[in-house]
Amino acid sequence: MYNCPHCFAPCYSIWQRLTSNRRASIVCVHCGGKSRVSDRARLLEALGAELLGLAVVIAFFAWHWWAVLPVAVGVTVGLIALGDLIFPLVAAEAFGSASDTRRAAAHFWLIAPLALAVVLFLIVTMVKG
């Protein structure tokens, strides 16, 4: 069970966490406080998903599909659980608040150069290939 950052009571099971919307806030059944997934946990999941996607594409050509599927599912569940164990839930801010806007800008400036690098890499690879 995951603990509420407001009242520290167990309020959310691992199964609920794996099947829930990643961006939605979580409401504690004990105190009614709203919490969300930590940005660091989301970053760990995003980086892991990129590496997992690359590994699955490579493995798809090297292995049979029935060998790749359980590995991909296991690693995905592991990344989600690892991110939550290392970085617990945090209190949710109101949409459009100063901290929410600052976090969105930080996310954009972290992801935009990475996306640009991937696009440039793909273009160079296609031109050379």
Task: Tell me what the structure shows.
With 129 residues, this protein is mainly alpha-helical. The protein has one domain. The protein contains 4 helices and 5 strands; from the N terminus they run ββαββααβα. A hairpin with a 6-residue loop joins strand 3 and strand 4. Helix 2 runs antiparallel to helix 3. The longest helix has 31 residues. It is flat, with a radius of gyration of 18 Å. The mean pLDDT is 79.
Provide a compact summary of the structure.
The protein is mainly alpha-helical and 129 residues long.
Topology, pairings included?
Layout: E1 2-3, E2 10-12, H1 14-19, E3 26-27, E4 34-36, H2 39-62, H3 65-86, E5 90-91, H4 98-128
Antiparallel strand pairs: 1-2, 3-4, 4-5
Helix pairs in contact: 2-3
> Which runs of at least 5 residues are low in confidence (pLDDT < 50)?
none
Shape: flat
Strand content: 5-15%
Q: Oligomeric status of the shown chains?
A: single chain
- CA radius of gyration is 18 Å
Span of the ends, CA to CA = 50 Å
Number of helices: 4
Q: What does the largest sheet look like?
A: 3 strands, antiparallel
The assigned structural class equals: mainly alpha
Number-wise, the strands total: 5
Mean of residue pLDDT? 79
